[in-house]
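Two proteins were folded this term; both appear here.
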Amino acid sequence: ASCITEEEEAIYVGNHEECVGSSGVDEAVLKTAYEGDIREDISFKNYINCFFTKSGFQDEKGEMRYDVIKSFVPHITQADDLERTITVCEAKKLVGETPADTAFLHFKCYMGKM
């Protein structure tokens, strides 16, 4: 598996930091979410929406950009599993009431919680 470049990593770290600041999400909420304990938290939903939008995974209207998400997959370990997961989540046509809800639903799906 290939890895993301230092430049890409810097962009994602910058997006993360900016989105933590703008959403007000608690780092502990992020940590537990990435460990699989995903809670209905508005600041977390806003963080995911911000991160997905800034990273190009979601457009300003809240539509998921699967082409961009899938182009990122080869940079991740376990890319085959993740690509299958993305395809499954895409087929579910998950749409929330707001862009943040849509981002949250997709995050849950990608984490295997839907």
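Next, the second protein.
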Amino acid sequence: MACRIPEVASLVKEAQEVFQKVFGGVALVAAVAPGRVNIIGEHTDYNDGFVFPMALPMVTVVVGRRVEGSRCRVHTTSPMADKPHQVEFPAPSPSTPLQPGSPSWANYVKGVVANFQGSISGFDAVVTTSVPLGGGLSSSASLEVATYTFLEALTGIHAPSLREKALACQRAEHDFANMPCGIMDQFISTMGKQGNALLIDCRSMESTLVPLSDPSVTLVITNSNVRHTLSGSEYPTRRRQCSEAAAALGKQSLRDATMKDLEEHKSSLSEEAFRRARHVISEIGRTQQAVEVLKAG
């Protein structure tokens, strides 16, 4: 059965009402960032390949205001987030850098605060989201980008470019969630446009909007009911295996390898590493072909 996706305005209103109840007063700033689904290009972003995601109407909202002093308080309304649902930490300074800890959801917020390209004072904030946590729709990147956008509005200090903003959010996940993710999720959450998918070259960091204008095409997202977490999954292992396979082939990354290269070095790879590399090399080609077919109609 199809689920109803809350409108952004209703999520903002919900967050503002919770803010008034939890912190008192009015939230003066609101920021929004979408989740994503990847149409094609799986496990290719960290191999310098191509990915083809699209932003979703499911979003994360952060509302809040500045406060006196250096105390930062953040409250989440998500029942799926680990407890406690409210955290407090000092704004970072050279003498008191932020450190990851628990609950895990707060590490994505703290990571962005730590990687924000500007000075931050104290603030109160409420987070609410329609992106399912652990559903493979990039709830973490959505939270990171919404938090960075919130800080931009709060301070008036903006990232030099959307690319730099996405990279800062990626560093937040690397440093505070201990997850060596690729760039896809943060890029699409930062740069996605309604009615378009985004072809991303994960080596050059160049991206191209591709219209999804064919009314006969519908993308359906189904819930497998399998809880997805990068930090607790085989993701780091897969990334390491791909890096080792590229090295065995004498390549900087699997982006530079061909199926012929892979077959010639098959004996130097484990069966699992061979299958990982075969998927990545072929998937990079499939992604480019899929985009060309879509463009051609």
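Helices lie at 8-23, 104-115, 139-155, 162-176, 184-191, 235-248, 259-264, 271-296. The chain has a mean pLDDT of 94. These notes refer to the second protein only.
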